[in-house]
UniProtKB/TrEMBL annotation:
PANTHER family hit by this protein: ACREF/ENVCD OPERON REPRESSOR-RELATED (PTHR43479), ACREF_ENVCD OPERON REPRESSOR-RELATED (PTHR43479:SF11)
Regions that span the bilayer: none
DNA-binding residues: 24-43
One Pfam family matching this protein: TetR_N
Protein name as catalogued: AcrR family transcriptional regulator
């Protein structure tokens, strides 16, 4: 067995028994029957090992679900097939799923958090594709709420599935969740989460937003607004994002111009964080 694979498999067994934080590298190497030096030839740190485990299992889980969504021809069976594949994959990778469900409070570093966010965004895209294939324009206003509805069902029943030691009928569970999802999708008329909110969530959770990404969402917002003080402020802020041409006091004033507009609050928040990180401009007073 390749040493890297051996370390991952044995570490996963230990993590499942006693948790990530409670498992030191020395215990992993002892369990593998290798030296610490051999461990560090394979992984620079325990965090790097955890990232490797996340990549290894999440790629398999995401790939299985994505394949099902893209290749199930019968749309009436698609919801059932989606849930069936999801929970079958959780069953196959039970130790991995159990670890990360039990240790949500683990103090992951920034790289680990970003890794999990990456896979969470991939899952959002797959679920959105699923929803659009099944319901099309019938849920155009509520499809983003449905993403969180489906993820909520997945998370809740995954906890029951993973932590329950008794046998579970995956087909019956999948049928039940498909029925629940369909009832919500066909009867919900009041949307809460919009496309704009999804974009804001995506940018807010990304600690490495580029100026091009910020500019893109600004340009979209500029196109949506009629001529107004807010629109002119957004144009100037976009220029500043791309060229850093304005005095901090002017940036603060422009942010104040947009912060109370119902369609600009999100971008105002994103911009304030971006300017703080990029140039150290203190814009917190705009939101006091």
């Amino acid at each position: 067995m390749i040493k890297k694979q051996l370390i991952m498999e044995k570490a996963l067994e230990l993590f499942a028994i006693q948790g990530i934080e409670a498992t030191p590298i020395q215990q992993i190497t002892d369990y593998c029957g290798i030296s610490k030096g051999a461990f560090y030839l394979a992984f620079k740190s325990k965090d790097e090992l955890i990232i490797a485990l996340i990549d290894h299992f999440m790629i398999q889980i995401i790939s299985d679900i994505d394949y099902t969504v893209k290749n199930t021809q019968n749309k009436q069976e698609l919801l059932f097939s989606f849930f069936q594949t999801t929970f079958q994959s959780f069953h196959t990778h039970a130790n991995f799923a159990k670890i990360f469900m039990k240790e949500q409070s683990h103090s992951f570093n920034k790289e680990l958090i970003n890794k999990m966010r990456h896979y969470d965004r991939l899952m959002d895209e797959i679920i959105l594709s699923l929803i659009e294939q099944i319901y099309g324009d019938r849920v155009i206003d509520t499809k983003y709420d449905l993403i969180y509805t489906i993820k909520g069902l997945m998370n809740s029943y995954s906890a029951f599935f993973i932590l329950n030691k008794g046998p579970i009928d995956i087909d019956l569970l999948s049928q039940s969740l498909a029925e629940k999802t369909n009832l919500i999708a066909t009867n919900t008329t009041t949307p809460f989460i919009s496309k704009e909110m999804m974009e804001i969530f995506k940018l807010s959770n990304n600690d490495e937003n580029s100026k091009e990404q910020i500019s893109e969402i600004l340009l979209q917002k500029i196109e949506e607004l009629d001529e107004s003080t807010e629109k002119e402020s957004l144009i100037l802020l976009n220029q500043h994002v791309l060229e850093t041409s304005l005095h901090p006091a002017i940036v603060q004033g422009l942010l104040k111009n947009i912060q109370n507009h119902p369609h600009c609050k999100g971008i105002a928040y994103i911009l304030s964080n971006y300017f703080m990180q990029d140039g150290g401009i203190n814009v917190s007073s705009c939101f006091s």
